[in-house]
Amino acid sequence: MFRKGAVHMFNLIQCAENTYYLKCYSNIGVYDLGDGTCVLIDAGDHKKSVSDLNKAIVAHGWRVRMILNTHCHIDHINGNRFFRDTYGCKIYAPHIETFFVEENLLEPNYYYLGVPTNRKRNFFFRELGTKAEELTEDVLPAGFALLPLPGHCYNMVGVKTPDDVWFLGDAVVDPATYESYHLPLFYDINKSIATARMLAELPGRLFIPSHTEAKEDVGALCRYNADAMEDNKRQILSLCDGRIFEDIFAAACSLFGIDLDMDKYAKLVYTVRIYLQALLEDGTLTAALEGGRLVYHVI
Fold this sequence. Notes:
Strand content: 15-25%
Radius of gyration: 20 Å
Number of domains: 2
Distance between the termini: 61 Å
């Protein structure tokens, strides 16, 4: 019998009749297909979450039929190879994301604009890439649905189970993430804002973002995310007039009180550039080459 919020073995939480999730750094969805097999929605961030999930799968007597990766970031695909090798399951990811799932050199290259340092190379290459097929409606079990969630990554999707439970990937994060990191990683700020505002109106029984608690009403969280990104845009715009990127970046780190190390530097350089691109798209900012330097000007 389904008991809402029942915690099963190894922190596997039953949140609807046949839908479960493993509460961990990157929440993993599990759907019981009722024939001794299950579907995973994402595949874990590190060995402990993968191990805990597999123990729960074994305890339930399931076999993994397929993995649906919402997007290609390493904290969502790290268990792909283990589950494929253990159960022979198929792995699916959205178009474009499949290339990153298969070739784990690609993700660090777009953060670092080249080959990363040895230490970060070891982090990204701790598991080999895995062959992934394109995730489309045609490959889904009956009752599942996909929803494009552009902004955080190239082609991220949300996944709805037949229990009307939505797994939202990294489309929204909790306020503590903004308070701690100030500028969370997104691929396209304006699309992320639009996605968050769309999700605020999305009907569903339960919503499970990857990095925060499951919520019956996700509207307030989505609006918070959209407003936080809009506020970040306004604050970064205030730093731009007559400046080159390096000066804007330093001013942003000072404004948001960010203490840098080499890892944070790489991702924040990427993120601040994405914010500048959003401002250029808005028409509130322009840029021109002046004496071999790209100088930004507020319009």
